[in-house]
Amino acid sequence: MLPSTFGSSLWFSEEELAELEGTTLYRATVIQRKSLQSSFDEKVKGIVEELLHVDESASSPEVLFEDFLWANSIFWTRALNIPLPHSYVFPGSCGDQQTRTNDDVCDSSLLTHQETDITAKDSIADENSKSSNTESIWVEGLIPGIDFCNHNVKALATWEVDSVGNATGVPASMYLMLADKSSVEAGAEIYINYGNKGNEELLYLYGFVVDNNPDDYLMVHYPVEALRQIQSADIKMRLLEIQKGELRCLLPRSLLDNGFFGIRSGEDKDDKKSISPFSSYSWSGQRKVPSYLHKIVFPQEFLSTLRTIAMQEHEIENVASLLEEVGSSEDREPSDAEIQSAVWEVCGDQGALGLLVDLLRVKMAELEEGTGPEASDSQLLEQFYSLDSEDCTSGSDENNKDKSKINIHSCIIYRRGQKQLTRLFLREAEYLLELSGKEQT
After folding, report:
1. What pLDDT sits at residue 206?
2. Considering the entire predicted model, what is its pTM?
3. Rounded CA separation 22/372 (Å)
4. What InterPro entries has UniProt attached to this entry (predicted)?
5. Distance of alpha carbon 324 from alpha carbon 331, whole angstroms
6. How far is 440 from 313, CA to CA, in rounded Å?
7. What is the pLDDT of residues 207-227, one digit of tens each?
8. Residue of 226, 203, 229 lying closest to 216 (CA atoms)
9. What is the DSSP string of 131-195?
């Protein structure tokens, strides 16, 4: 019943992978392929061969990387977070225990799994051991049946945990619950919602995309290699370290709703000014809070990083002078908030926004270099939609061709969405830069 192949980017042919050139997903796929191959060559292959050779009388099949890739995909395309009793995960254990669970979220460039620590509270005294063992620990695993459900934003069902067995008669069991029984017809497919995932994550993990995905996001980052080569790199890197500066940020599509060109462009203007993130930023209060503050869609943490990177030599000296006031008066190192305040007081937004515009323009150039502009992708999609389904045959070669078409179709939808988001966020950044220049002069 399990699939033998997958549509995720790890399974793409070189021709299909070329459709992703210039995207974060392309780089992530190449890196992950190398990582999996390395794990197989250095660890998995030898262990499996040992296990297979235990029975010398049996003929052992060749251990192939493709089998390892299949097993890896079977797990990560179907895994769910399962709450298990503490006593089940740590049978007969005592003392503090800790486990980790992975929540499949694409990060910046590697799309690795975000790790969430979950600490189980054990008992110290014997009388507390019983209550401790009833606590749940979330562990990722496979749930036969539920893991066959496909994804839909408007899911017909949700999966729930029956901790004590009221619904199923089995404690710590799971079941599917229909969202609206009256709307389900006999024979209808039961969908669940995999969560608010962008197309980058969906294509990487599961092998499908959602056209015009409302949960799409764009990753923007400042390269570490470039940071090491800028003027006064050591000083700036030290300031970023104290600030816990982020060199990358995820920009969800939903942020655009509150921008200058978004659907809420005229709403809540006064309210947003009253909760200005710069209310505690300005060192002396001499720098005027910009009028466009309530329309900035970019995370302030990332803009703080860009302000530090964009500083000129004379600005670094001025920032150092402000920070010396703190060190001399209290004999301590300035805090991250104080550094942000000093940099904001000296630099304002002009340098950071100029750098942000440059990053987004480079992003667009990378996206368009291999696969053309957004308009070209739209034309290709129109051609896909106009294909006559009667052309499909049941031959194996034709089926392989159809799978390749589906993969390429998914790539085009994903990369067009990335180009669209880059264009829209670039428009916001360019307009902010223009306003910043007017207010600074």
Report:
1. 92
2. 0.80
3. 10
4. SET_dom_sf, SETD3_SETD6_MTase
5. 10
6. 19
7. 999 999 999 999 999 999 999
8. 203
9. HHHTSEEEEEE--TTGGGPPB-SS-SEEEEEESS-TTTSSTTEEEEEES-GGGPPTT----B---
Distances (CA, A) of 226 to 22, 88, 221, 230: 18, 49, 11, 7
Exposure letters 323-345 (e unless 16+ CB within 10 A, then b): beebeeeeeeebeeebbbbbbbb
E strand or H helix at 423, and its extent?
Answer: helix 396-440
The list of the chain residues with pLDDT below 50 reads 95-133, 269-280, 388-397
Residue-wise DSSP of 260-321: TTSTTTTSSHHHHHHT-TTTTT-SSS-SPPPTTGGG--S-HHHHHHHHHHH--HHHHHHHHH
What's the token pair of residue 338? 């104080």
Question: Other C-beta atoms within 10 Å of 441: how many?
Answer: 6
Output the CA–CA distances (angstroms, integers) from residue 154 to 157, 214, 332, 405, in the order listed: 9, 13, 54, 26
Return the pLDDT at 1. Answer: 85
Residue spans of beta strands (DSSP E) within 329-434: none
249's CB contacts (< 8 A; 6+ apart) are: 219, 220, 221, 298, 299, 301, 302
Which of 151, 170, 152 minimizes the C-alpha distance to 161? Answer: 170
Please answer whether residues 68 and 122 qualify as being in contact, where contact means their C-beta atoms are separated by less than 8 angstroms: no
- Residue 139: strand pairing partners: 82
**Contact between residue 373 and residue 422 where contact means Cβ atoms under 8 Å apart:** no
Q: Which of 282, 198, 275 is nearest to 23 (CA)?
A: 198
Q: What is the largest CA-CA distance in the chain?
A: 85
What tokens does 307 get?
Answer: 């302000």
- Residue 258 DSSP class: G
Residue 339: name the closest of 353, 322, 351 by CA: 322
Residue with tokens 């308009």: 375
- What is the signed CA dihedral for 397, 399, 400, 406, rounded to 10 degrees? 150
Q: Residue 244, exposed/middle/buried by CB under 10 A (0-12, 13-18, 19+)? A: exposed
Q: How many Å apart are CA 233 and CA 223, to the nearest integer? A: 13
Asked if 190 and 176 count as a contact pair (C-beta separation under 8 A), the reply is yes
Strand partners, 151: 192
Q: How far apart are CA 211 and CA 414, in angstroms?
A: 8
CA 422 to chain centre: 16
pLDDT, tens only, 240-253: 998 999 999 999 99
C-alpha torsion angle, residues 430, 431, 433, 438 (rounded to 10) = 150
Spatial contact of 220 and 359, defined as CB atoms under 8 Å apart: yes
Average pLDDT of the chain, as a whole number: 81
